[in-house]
């Protein structure tokens, strides 16, 4: 075992790197500038966390969303590792405390948003100590050619130039065309960077497109798909109004759904995110305001109710499915009205840029780029060739040659020759299901191994970015399907088990959770009911 593998085992308890991680980590440890293009779920956060921990070098991680950074800090702390988050949501005393941790050498990883680069306390700190590594997450945000340009990302280059000693700079993104890669290198001021393209392909994702749906039919197709699939998922809509409408429609059909958009108050958005993480909702219906800050690994499906503005945007949003490596579905439901709506958005964007005082040449350049991106996603919808091949071709991914040689991916609607059934308002559950294959997989066993090591359910949940409910489900499956040594009595007292058994005997359908739960006190959870049901199943009492 080499030195990096030893550190990987020491800090993260992983025996092996994921494909593409080790060479990126080694380049960062060696002090080189790096551009790394890794798919969502490819383990990019470890690529900048491990060098900081292994070398004890002070590392600043710049990321666009507080929730995403908080998840990573919590995950590190759950492993017994130190990291701090400095942002506008914490008090001045908390900022000072974090700075002291860094000055004392207790902490080597600092998370912050680019807007905070002018923070006085941080500037004073970096005048005293040496900042060794700057890791820029979601680096495509620095490029106007990217799908999610953030002006504050342009502060990073000047911030780096202002430091007494130049750190090594690493840039990470999951979606970037060759033009955006060049922009990242230029706008961050990278010096002879090593460029790693790990590939965009996500073999566990299945891509489906259904075009030319009318609005009402699209709602009913969403319902059919959601009812046919296990687990929780995201439905993306094009407007706030549409998220509310779809959410109300699903709830009326007994699907637990909630809307999420930028119009919600911060506290409301936080509550929705937390409940979704815990699988309290089967579906979150969202605008593009949702996703980047939510690190939920077991999303089983992403459905787009409407065409996104670009291939980059679509692949990033669809890529939120199946980050645990399990089979998941990405379905785009298209209407003829979508293109017209996108043209309207571009015209509104031009009007806004005019009001901001941008010159005509710049406005036309940006608008033409938007039109080109719209044409690319339109071609994806209308294409008669393998969906995966179209995606990989767009990103100039070398893996596209493998797909061509194999005459497709055999994992999308085109390659599977999938025949969509006629949409009706009478939706029956599990009719022609896009069901997810269930097996005791690596993601379940990763949970099991952590449990065997003595970690609590809550610690595993934080480390794996999965809900507590999901961790319980993993352990319950292990208990039943693999004869796992799960001590049920640690989670369910004899009195609670007696109450659950009594409720089961009185329920109309004792194989389903809800009819049992309504007969029990609030302090008995669904997870405890599942465990008792699993115990009965294991001893073959039914």
TrEMBL record:
Reactions this protein catalyses: Couples ATP hydrolysis with the unwinding of duplex DNA by translocating in the 3'-5' direction
SMART domains: DEXDc, HELICc
Any Gene Ontology biological process: DNA repair
A Pfam family annotated for this UniProt entry: HTH_40
UniProt xrefs under InterPro entries: DEAD/DEAH_box_helicase_dom (IPR011545), DNA_helicase_ATP-dep_RecQ (IPR004589), Helicase_ATP-bd (IPR014001), Helicase_C-like (IPR001650), Helicase_HTH (IPR029491), P-loop_NTPase (IPR027417), RecQ_Zn-bd (IPR032284)
Record-linked CDD domains: DEXHc_RecQ (cd17920), SF2_C_RecQ (cd18794)
Documented EC number(s): 5.6.2.4
Gene Ontology CC terms, in alphabetical order: bacterial nucleoid; cytoplasm; replisome
Domain Helicase C-terminal residues, every copy: 221-382
Molecular function via GO: 3'-5' DNA helicase activity; ATP binding; DNA binding; four-way junction helicase activity; hydrolase activity; metal ion binding
Keyword set, alphabetical order: ATP-binding, DNA-binding, Helicase, Hydrolase, Isomerase, Metal-binding, Nucleotide-binding
Domain Helicase ATP-binding residue range list: 25-194
Entry superkingdom: Bacteria
Coiled-coil annotated spans: none
PROSITE patterns, sorted: HELICASE_ATP_BIND_1, HELICASE_CTER
Hydrolase recorded as keyword: yes
UniProt xrefs under NCBIfam families: recQ_fam (TIGR00614)
Sequence similarity: Belongs to the helicase family. RecQ subfamily.
Record protein name field: ATP-dependent DNA helicase RecQ
